[in-house]
Amino acid sequence: EVQLVESGGGSVQAGGSLRLSCAASGLRFDDYAMGWFRQAPGKEREGVSCTNWSGENKYYLKSVMARFTTSRDNAKSTLYLQIDNLDPEDTAMYFCAAGDYCELRGTLREPKYWGKGTQVTVSP
Fold first, then answer.
1. Could you tell me which of 112, 108, 119 has the C-alpha nearest to residue 72?
2. Nearest-angstrom CA–CA distance, 123 and 14
3. For residue range 4-43, what is the model confidence (pLDDT) as tens digits?
4. DSSP string covering the chain, please?
5. Alpha-carbon distance 118 to 101, whole Å?
6. Rounded Cα–Cα distance for residues 95 and 97 (Å)
7. 110: left (phi over 0), alpha (psi -120 to 50) or beta
8. 4, 5, 51, 80: which has the fewest Cβ within 10 Å?
């Protein structure tokens, strides 16, 4: 059974930082491109970052590019998202997903597997 388990979310003040993790099991991690998505209340889910299987290629939603950094450790089957200078607009549930391809606009195309998410809440 494939499992993607996110962690690292929390409640922080604006300007702070968080590092989200996504631990994968039940799949060959380095066979997949990996993406981070977020969904704010009342809004559609959007892709914020994507990395290819090796981690060499990374793509970001333009509006977060300056503050978000994605990385992966294939030896640990773990995906990361570093978020700096958090803004209340970043408040959302953050999900990781596994799939085949990244899109240049920073999203993972046709995700095959999803995690259940970790909540990020940013106060002014």
1. 108
2. 6
3. 999 999 999 999 999 999 999 999 999 999 999 999 999 9
4. --EEEEE--EEEETT--EEEEEEEESS-GGGSEEEEEEE-TTS--EEEEEE-TTSS-EEE-GGGTTTEEEEEETTTTEEEEEE-S--GGG-EEEEEEEESEE-TTS-EES-SEE---EEEEEE-
5. 23
6. 7
7. left
8. 5
